[in-house]
């Protein structure tokens, strides 16, 4: 067998990356994203995009994504191959460490072809040293889904002090069902988990003054609701309830408030996500008219 050549893509070699046959079942192509266009925007860059070749033919490829302002990639979100072993070796050799975000259609397990494509990617990543952390729902609200009525049970207040939000993040992270939060707490502690999520929210390209804290009419803190934007869409950036207020359905109130706020800021669609295992939050999204449009498997 011809020796495998693994190397980063050089500027101007976008056609080499796209020369690998695209099976169109999982990954960015399914959702309309174009590699060449994203590379031109600086979201895929030389050093972040790698190929594995045999006889000058691409047999595996991987692209790490970030916004143009990021110094290091945020996630591996494009990985496929025609040669399983080449895919494994590619991930092993590339000196980049970021979470692998594998996008799939909803109910991907029900379609044998899609299930195969997902499974072989996960198996290759695991053989290269990744491990599956969680599967997540991706929701997308549009006006056709209807704007949910505000329950009117809570008061929402702006808070300009980041340290106050940091303290609230610490409170809502206690007993969290979010796999990423639980992982960070286990590895680095509660303070680090709170700081990580605050920094992510500050990184997002949306006005900081959109954020709100939620209170009962008696002035008791309920949680936080942080409407925001990512690189492409308006998003429900973060909503969470403090432990002592859980079990009252307040996550729905927080979600509805964020939805109304984003619509007021001009959103024509709103993207959101939660872990498949976070049943209360998933139910809140369903109640508020957010259909599941995608799944994502996160490997670390």
From TrEMBL:
<feature type="domain" description="N-acetyltransferase">
    <location>
        <begin position="172"/>
        <end position="300"/>
    </location>
</feature>
<dbReference type="InterPro" id="IPR000182">
    <property type="entry name" value="GNAT_dom"/>
</dbReference>
<protein>
    <submittedName>
        <fullName>Protein N-acetyltransferase, RimJ/RimL family</fullName>
    </submittedName>
</protein>
<dbReference type="Pfam" id="PF00583">
    <property type="entry name" value="Acetyltransf_1"/>
</dbReference>
<keyword id="KW-0808">Transferase</keyword>
<dbReference type="InterPro" id="IPR016181">
    <property type="entry name" value="Acyl_CoA_acyltransferase"/>
</dbReference>
<dbReference type="GO" id="GO:0016747">
    <property type="term" value="F:acyltransferase activity, transferring groups other than amino-acyl groups"/>
</dbReference>
């Amino acid at each position: 067998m011809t020796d495998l050549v693994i190397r980063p893509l050089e500027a101007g070699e976008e056609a080499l990356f796209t020369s690998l046959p695209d099976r169109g079942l999982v990954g960015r192509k399914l959702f309309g994203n174009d590699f060449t266009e994203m590379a031109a925007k600086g979201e895929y860059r030389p050093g972040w995009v790698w190929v594995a070749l045999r006889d000058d033919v691409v047999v595996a490829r991987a692209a790490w994504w970030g916004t143009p302002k990021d110094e290091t990639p945020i996630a591996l979100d494009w990985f496929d191959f025609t040669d399983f072993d080449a895919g494994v070796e590619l991930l092993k050799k590339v000196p980049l460490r970021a979470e692998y975000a594998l996008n799939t259609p909803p109910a991907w397990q029900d379609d044998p072809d899609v299930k195969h494509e997902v499974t072989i990617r996960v198996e290759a990543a695991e053989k290269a040293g990744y491990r599956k952390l969680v599967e997540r729902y991706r929701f997308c609200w549009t006006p056709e889904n209807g704007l949910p009525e505000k329950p009117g049970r809570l008061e929402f207040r702006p808070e300009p002090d980041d340290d106050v939000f940091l303290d609230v993040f610490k409170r809502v992270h206690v007993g969290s069902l979010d796999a990423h939060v639980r992982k960070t707490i286990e590895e680095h502690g509660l303070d680090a988990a709170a700081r990580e999520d605050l920094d992510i929210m500050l990184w997002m390209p949306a006005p900081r003054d959109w954020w709100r804290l939620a209170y009962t009419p008696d002035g008791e803190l309920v949680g936080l609701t942080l409407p925001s934007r990512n690189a492409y869409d308006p998003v429900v950036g973060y909503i969470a309830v403090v432990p002592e207020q859980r079990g009252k359905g307040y996550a729905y109130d927080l979600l509805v408030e964020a939805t109304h706020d984003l619509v007021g800021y001009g959103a024509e669609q709103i993207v959101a996500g939660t872990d498949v295992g976070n049943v209360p939050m998933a139910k809140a999204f369903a109640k508020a008219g957010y259909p599941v449009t995608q799944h994502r498997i996160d490997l670390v």
